[in-house]
């Protein structure tokens, strides 16, 4: 088995590429539903946000897991192309490290931002709903989410954090100065739109207009910031009356196109208009930047705006990174143990059945024993079994992730005649962590096949 992540983010791909792989809730459900047609895919979860799209998978031993996932994702993308230069792929321990880094918001555009943890939870919940996770990803995501919470609790990385929405407002201030007489139109009343509206109001903007597909949602947000609403179809015609338009919708097509904005701006040829597009996929046609008087900014431009705030939290990020390495190693050890847990469980269960059978036979010959004496006898036999099994269990545990692991697993099966029990157990169990391949993968070592050659 191989634990793999394949994806792209704001560090590796510009917004024009990221938007091609921005997946909606329904898109993710559709992709996950197709995994049952691939024998090589054991488990899968997909994380899709404004700044990243990542596929986490547990695969059978495919020769090139990264190429496999790139081809798989290419079939799901709009143009069928996954240009290698924009993507990253990590396996084993590096995959674990990466997701932990993501949930701790150490890999975010805005260091310390809080939304990513919620987004990871939702991605995992959807994969669970679609029944595409099992032992490995369940353990993996639970630990990653717990680690994200731990970082936010034990460090100040989230203290005084800046969000993309506040960075957008800061950009407006930097370009226009005071917001007191600034007319701002927000297109989109979701979480990002709400945070932007609140930031604008806090900075003194008293002319906020809200447009949204759901008019009631727009009205509710307008009331919260003492603003006004306009109809979605009036966004472009109203452009010449605004100083700033900030978009953050979930639309898959451009909300503002060049040809329409060109007509609207002809009303006032000397008008200057600032457009900030913080949606992925983008809401604004990038060609509008060619219109006289237009300044256009998108998500890629937000990175510079948050750099100063990032520097203020670098010390806390260092503390979080130390915790990250500790948690990664702990989970690697957990997964290494998972490789031989079925053998240990079967051995323990077999020994326990034998113990109970012999105790039952002894009690049949000793009817005069009191309840207390029976309890003492039962406890004594339990301790004998535990002590006999202790050394083999410790030896097997110590071999996890080493070149000797497979030797000890096979020896245990033969010595205690567990092969038959394993076959019967496999009929009832849909999944076991592959002892050799996954342990090798997590340890970052080549695996040996039966001929002794590296695979």
Please provide a written account of the structure:
GO terms for molecular function: glutamyl-tRNA reductase activity; NADP binding. One of its GO terms (biological process) is protoporphyrinogen IX biosynthetic process from glutamate. It is a single chain. This protein has 455 residues and is of the alpha/beta class. It has 16 helices and ten strands. The strands form two sheets. It has a six-stranded parallel β-sheet with strand order 7-6-5-8-9-10. A four-stranded antiparallel β-sheet has the order 2-3-1-4, sandwiched between helices. α10 (258-265) links the parallel β8 (244-247) and β9 (273-277). The longest helix has 52 residues, at 314-365. The two termini are 13 Å apart. The model is unreliable at 421-455 (pLDDT under 50).
């Amino acid at each position: 088995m191989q634990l793999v992540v394949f994806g792209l983010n704001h560090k590796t791909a510009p917004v024009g590429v990221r938007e091609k792989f921005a997946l909606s809730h329904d898109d993710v459900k559709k992709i996950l539903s197709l995994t049952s047609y691939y024998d090589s895919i054991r488990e899968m979860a997909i994380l899709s946000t404004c700044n990243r799209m990542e596929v986490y998978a547990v695969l059978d031993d495919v020769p090139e897991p990264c190429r496999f996932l790139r081809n798989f994702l290419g079939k799901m993308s709009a143009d069928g192309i996954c240009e290698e230069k924009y993507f990253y792929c990590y396996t084993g321990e590096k995959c674990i490290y990466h997701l932990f880094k993501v949930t701790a918001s150490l890999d975010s555009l805005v260091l310390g931002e809080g939304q990513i943890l919620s987004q990871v939870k939702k991605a995992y919940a959807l994969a669970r709903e679609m029944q595409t996770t099992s032992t490995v990803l369940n353990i993996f995501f639970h630990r990653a989410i717990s680690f994200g919470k731990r970082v936010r609790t034990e460090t100040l990385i989230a203290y005084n954090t800046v969000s993309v929405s506040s960075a957008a407002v800061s950009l407006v201030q930097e370009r226009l100065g005071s917001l007191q007489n600034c007319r701002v139109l927000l297109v989109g009343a979701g979480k990002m739109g709400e945070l932007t509206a609140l930031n604008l109001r806090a900075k003194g903007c008293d002319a906020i207009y809200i447009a949204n597909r759901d008019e009631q949602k727009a009205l509710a947000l307008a009331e919260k910031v003492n603003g006004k609403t306009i109809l979605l179809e009036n966004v472009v015609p109203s452009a010449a009356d605004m100083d700033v338009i900030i978009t953050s919708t979930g639309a898959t097509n451009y909300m503002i196109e060049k040809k329409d904005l060109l007509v609207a701006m002809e009303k006032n040829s000397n008008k200057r208009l600032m457009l900030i597009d913080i949606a992925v996929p983008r809401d604004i046609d990038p060609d509008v930047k060619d219109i006289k008087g237009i300044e256009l900014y998108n998500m890629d431009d937000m990175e510079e705006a948050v750099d100063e705030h990032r520097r203020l939290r670098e010390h806390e990020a260092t503390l979080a990174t130390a915790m990250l390495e500790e948690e990664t190693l702990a989970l690697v050890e957990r997964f290494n143990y998972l490789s031989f847990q079925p053998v240990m469980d079967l051995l323990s269960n077999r020994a326990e059945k034998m113990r109970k059978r012999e105790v039952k036979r002894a009690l049949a010959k000793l009817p005069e024993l009191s309840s207390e004496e029976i309890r003492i006898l039962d406890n004594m036999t339990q301790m004998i079994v535990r002590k006999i099994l202790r050394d083999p269990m410790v030896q097997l545990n110590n071999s996890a992730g080493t070149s000797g692991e497979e030797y000890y697993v096979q020896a245990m099966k033969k010595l205690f005649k567990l092969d038959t029990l394993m076959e019967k157990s496999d009929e009832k169990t849909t999944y076991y962590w592959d002892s050799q391949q996954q342990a090798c993968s997590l340890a970052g070592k080549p695996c040996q096949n039966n001929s002794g050659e590296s695979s």
